Amino acid sequence: MSTIESRLASLRPSRETAIWWAVVLNTELLVLLAYLVVETPIVTRPLFYIIPFVWINAALWGVFRVSPRAASTRQRVTALGIAGGYFLVLGYFGGLYGPSGGPATGLRVAFEAVPPGWGPAVIYGGTVLQFALLPFKLIGYATLAYLVYATVLDAASSVVGGVLGLFSCVSCTLPVIAGIVSGFVGGTGAVAAAAFNQSYLLSTVVFVVTVVLLVWRPTMADLRGIGLRG
Asked: What confidence tens digit (pLDDT) does each residue in 39-77 have?
């Protein structure tokens, strides 16, 4: 079995893992159904309700697939610094936080009219700083930072994964700034509007691909092997 085939084989879940995922998915389905029953929203964009769970599930998969190797204190500090900077870049371009662009609105937590995953959203608008901490984006970007941390410790050249991670954030910059961040003054309806943009669907696909690449960490030899097989 080639290196690439062995790596792909290792990604197949065990029976115990499959059972665990069945529990997770069923729980998420029950939570979503409970929200739909209680809030009775008019569902015109089904993907709006699915996107957060795609991010969260991909993040859970990535975290449980990767364990940072043992390293010296200096190596861990260096990796932590790189991962921390990566998270700050993701958070800024992804709309988690940024400079204030309007009047101070204070701190609030959005529960009502916000589907699971999008909420509960912690939103703050100050005179200098503003942030919108949506659970699925916070979990997603924290996961990418964790995977970058593990990648640095393993001294793996997974540049492709890092580039795609940044692309994931840049591609969703416009809908986040126009929709979610505007929710500081426009209410939770702006949060829902952000998901309707096609770039948000693209960023979701790229996020999942990024997680897979940072877990798999393909080498140039692997990529050449794929090209030869094609």
From this structure: 888 888 888 899 999 999 999 999 998 988 888 888 888
Pairwise CA distance, residues 201 & 171, whole Å: 10
Q: Are 151 and 217 in contact (CB under 8 A)?
A: yes
Residue 32, CB-side half-sphere exposure with 13 Å CA sphere: 17
pLDDT tens, 172-203?
A: 333 333 333 333 334 444 444 444 445 677 77
Tally of CB atoms within 10 A around 13? 12
pTM of the model as a whole: 0.76
